[in-house]
Amino acid sequence: MHGTAVNRNSMTISPRTRHESKFAAAAGFGAGRLLVVFLALLWAGCATEQAGTGTVAGSVRAVLDEQVRQWNAGDLEGFMQGYDKSSRTRFASGGDVNLGFQTVFDRYRKRYGDRSAMGALSFSDVDITVLAPDAAVVFGRYRLQREKDSPTGLFTLLFRKTAEGWRIVHDHTSSAPTN
Questions:
Q1: pLDDT tens across 123-168, in order?
Q2: β-bridge mates for residue 170, sequence order
């Protein structure tokens, strides 16, 4: 026979098989205590996963915030610290694909070589989705406030956790049409 029998008069649970009985006796737990321990472990695992997800999103957001600070300080090299220094780092925009950290950095230097071209950067509508403990995707809007114009657009970033921390490995940025 399998399962457990419940004595409704005294509300005790008694094991029906020898294996269940030996296990409960050896562990020093009754079935009720085992259930409580199991549920506590399950809850702790869920809480750890939620906390881990929050930590990932917070870490990714911190990289974005630091990029904005560096950009607005006129430090293009500091801004680029948010990208993975890999030959596989990819930046796509305006129909072009740039591959490799140095190529991406050179593109930024060419387009935003002086402080007036950089303007003031801001991100909005940032949505971070954790894909795995070492990967996240970010969608958002950027805006550059410059003396003569205010370009804006959308971006999608793939972040990976590297030995240096959270870094952008793929960046797809599009410009909104200007009026």
A1: 999 999 999 999 999 999 999 999 999 999 999 999 999 999 999 9
A2: 90, 158
Residue 16 lies in a domain: no
Q: Which band of pLDDT confidence, cut at 50, 70 and 90, is reported for residue 33? A: low
Residue 68's CB is within 10 A of a number of other CB atoms, namely 16
Q: Which domain holds residue 120?
A: 40-175
127/123 Cα distance (integer angstroms): 11
| 128 vs 113 pLDDT, higher one | 128
Query: Can you give the CATH number for the domain in which 53 is found?
Result: 3.10.450.50
* Burial class of residue 89, CB neighbours in 10 A (0-12, 13-18, 19+): buried
The residues near 151 (Cβ < 8 Å, ≥ 6 apart) are 143, 144, 175, 176, 178
Q: Which distant-in-sequence residues (6+ apart) come within 8 Å of 118 by Cβ?
A: 71, 74, 76, 112, 144, 146
Query: Can you read off the two tokens belonging to residue 124?
Result: 């909005």
CA-nearest of 22, 167, 165 to 86 is 167
At 9 the three-state DSSP class reads: coil
* pLDDT for residue 179 is more than 70: no
Domain count, the chain: 1
